[in-house]
Amino acid sequence: MNQPHSLPPLIQVVGYAGSGKTTLLTRVVQMLTNQGWNVGTIKHHPKSWEWDEPGKDTWRHRQAGAGPVALVTGDRTVIDWHKVQEPVALLPFYRGMDLVLVEGFKQASHPKLVMVHREEDRELLDLSSIITLVSSQPEQWKKRGPCLHWDDVEKVAAMIVQEAGLDSK
């Protein structure tokens, strides 16, 4: 397991909208946490999103120039860090995790699983650091390199554990 002071390995799951990234990621997270791994996630949402209201305290903190801004409630914490361009910048928040799975950030250069299903997905094959493709039709993509079926969550999880350099549980 990862030591509390070290930064965890980071693996990406990328693809176009509607490709099954979230479904695959949540199934893998559930499997790995059931095996005893401490798994964190980062979700890239390229469109703007406001989580606090103009005029409220956290909004005022951000307007004053603070960053990151955290809101801590009785049951959750939200951290707003203006314009993170690279998921590795967030890893200090994940100390003590065994693994961080990132949904998105296609252009980042971390090891990644790429969701491919349609002909339009072919351009994703030019991304850097691809460890495997994941598809609903793996036979169609195998000539491009390793390709796993998106329903074979055990194999996908095993590949992630291996790529992250984690010891078996």
From TrEMBL:
InterPro entries reported for this sequence: MGD_biosynthesis_adapter, MobB_dom, P-loop_NTPase
List residues of the Molybdopterin-guanine dinucleotide biosynthesis protein B (MobB) domain: 11-135
A Pfam family the protein falls into? MobB
**Gene3D superfamilies per record:** P-loop containing nucleotide triphosphate hydrolases
Task: Kindly provide the name given to this protein in its UniProt entry.
Answer: Molybdopterin-guanine dinucleotide biosynthesis protein B
